[in-house]
Amino acid sequence: MRPTPLTEQELLSRAHELAGFTLDELAVQAGMITPPDLRRDKGWVGQLLEWHLGASAGSKPVPDFIELGIELKTIPISYTGKPLETTFVCVAPLMGLQGVTWENSHIRHKLARVLWVPVEGERDIPLGDRRVGSPLLWSPSADEEQRLRHDWEELMDMIVLGQVEAITARHGEVLQLRPKAANGKALTEAYGANGQIIKTRPRGFYLKTSFTAELLTRAFLL
DNA sequence: GCCTGATCATTA
DNA sequence: TAATGATCAGGC
């Protein structure tokens, strides 16, 4: 991959340089082969952008740009510029929750500073022909953080009370809790309704498309 | 299994 | 057609 950017400005300007290129063009530069589609390569676009931007973390549980504390997120965009998918943030802790607060939560740190890179995502555009858009370096506004915190506290309360299996994607205005695993057979431990420990599918926190649409729109209007 | 990168595919 | 629940690949 390219050298890791040393400053926020360097990272942002490098991201701006990618705007307008197709994924095929970026793949050639990276020495990668564009897959026919994303059915078996769901993370390919993210990995391609990681290469171009010099993300350092790889698959480690730390920010993509460790030194800068910045997380990289590619986001598939429709013809009208709206996100086509929810955005996975991180796995939800289901055990060992004593002392966990919004302030010290994994998700809050993950979302503290995010470099959003929109990429055309309509399925009728061949993968290699999709173009990269203009990047956005984002931190939650006070209002956005308040809404995130509200949903997070509601969801975590249910988890602590042993109600994880009663949570659906409909809970939360901006943040969802949904299964996150290789398949339905993956199981992890969680609190049960009667204080016992149960086995359940691992869950992840996802940002709803309406929320990420707002972010992109707000930045575009400014 | 957990974590990274996410999108797929079917339903409501 | 948007949203939900399910799933794919790779490294450790």
Plain-language structure description:
This protein is of the alpha+beta class and 222 residues long. The protein is built from 6 helices and 8 strands; from the N terminus they run αααββαββαββββα. Helix 2 packs across helix 3. It is globular, with a radius of gyration of 18 Å. The two termini are 32 Å apart. The chain binds a DNA duplex (12 and 12 nucleotides) through helix 3, strand 1, strand 2 and strand 5.
- Domains (count): 1
CATH topology: ECO RV Endonuclease, Chain A
- Looking at CATH, the homologous superfamily is DNA mismatch repair MutH/Restriction endonuclease, type II
The helix/strand series, from N terminus to C terminus, equals HHHEEHEEHEEEEH
Major beta-sheet overview: 3 strands, mixed
- Total DSSP E strands: 8
Whole-number average pLDDT? 91
| CATH hierarchy: architecture | 3-Layer(aba) Sandwich
Coarse shape = globular
- Taken as a percent bin, the fraction of beta residues is 15-25%
Helix % is 25-40%
Number of helices: 6
The strand line-up of the biggest sheet is 1-3-4
Which structural class should the secondary elements be placed in?
A: alpha+beta
Give the CATH class: Alpha Beta
The parts where pLDDT drops under 50 for at least 5 residues are none
Report how far apart the termini are.
32 Å
Gyration radius over CA: 18 Å
GO molecular function: endonuclease activity
Subcellular location: Cytoplasm
Pfam families: MutH (PF02976)
Keywords: Cytoplasm, DNA damage, DNA repair, Endonuclease, Hydrolase, Nuclease
